[in-house]
Inverse folding.
């Protein structure tokens, strides 16, 4: 077997620089977060994690992700199917609408929801007599999280499904499969890694979203604070140990998400 050609000095230097920059951008901040979180000992660290406000923020963040990710997986797959398997007037406009949440600032998205569902907003006077309160509740967090993460699954699936073409689906139809059988046994296996990869990105964004959530949640202690908002609240209260303990939890979630993303990319390349 012929061995790989030796690396040039330039390529070795570029690899070393990549590792150095990765260490500065990723490992150094992680080390700093955990060093501050643990500097008062494990007892104080776990006490900060299990503080009721932080524990509720973790719970609310996880529940929001559990609700948002499956919905956006379903909607993203449906939109990708529509865009790649049918030709219709306004198709490019639909693609632009799918991309719209990615182009809008999260703060702007939160303000739009506030003007739409707030008490003085467009739908507020209609909702108030019905006793429906959306703003400054967990429901508002779910709604705005659905909006800001809406493009991720579709953006992964649309180019993948375009590249795959329609031959497999047409073969399934010619063999007598109905629409559901075709999707379940042919389309879904072909797009499963793209679907899961989009779900991982969606989950990461839900977990870390700050701007839009900060507008619509009201940041009510123990009620509508997600984990990023709780970190900011603790830091502003000069509770450095508590804020870094909460930040370490979010960092662990981010690391796990990155590991899943890398594993999926390796699987797709393999």
């Amino acid at each position: 077997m012929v061995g790989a050609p030796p690396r040039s000095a330039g390529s070795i230097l570029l690899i070393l620089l990549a590792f150095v920059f990765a260490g500065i951008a990723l490992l150094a901040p992680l080390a700093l977060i955990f060093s501050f979180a643990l500097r008062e000992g494990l007892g104080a660290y776990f006490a900060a994690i299990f503080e009721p406000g932080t524990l509720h923020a973790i719970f609310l963040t996880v529940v929001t992700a559990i609700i948002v990710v499956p919905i956006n997986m379903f909607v993203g797959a449906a939109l990708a199917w529509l865009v790649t398997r049918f030709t219709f007037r306004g198709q490019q406009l639909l693609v632009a609408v799918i991309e719209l949440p990615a182009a809008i600032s999260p703060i702007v998205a939160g303000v739009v929801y506030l003007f739409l569902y707030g008490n003085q907003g467009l739908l507020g006077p209609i909702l108030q007599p019905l006793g429906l309160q959306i703003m400054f509740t967990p429901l508002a967090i779910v709604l705005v999280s659905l909006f800001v993460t809406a493009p991720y699954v579709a953006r992964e699936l649309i180019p993948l499904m375009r590249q795959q073409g329609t031959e497999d689906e047409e073969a399934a139809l010619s063999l007598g499969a109905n629409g559901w059988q075709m999707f379940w046994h042919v389309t879904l296996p072909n797009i499963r890694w793209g679907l899961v990869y989009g779900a991982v990105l969606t989950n990461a964004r839900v977990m870390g979203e700050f701007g839009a959530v900060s507008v619509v949640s009201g940041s009510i202690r123990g009620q509508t604070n997600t984990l990023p908002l709780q970190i900011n609240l603790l830091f502003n209260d000069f509770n450095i140990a508590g804020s870094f303990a909460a930040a370490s939890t979010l960092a662990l979630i981010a690391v796990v998400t990155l590991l899943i993303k890398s594993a999926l990319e390796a699987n797709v390349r393999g």
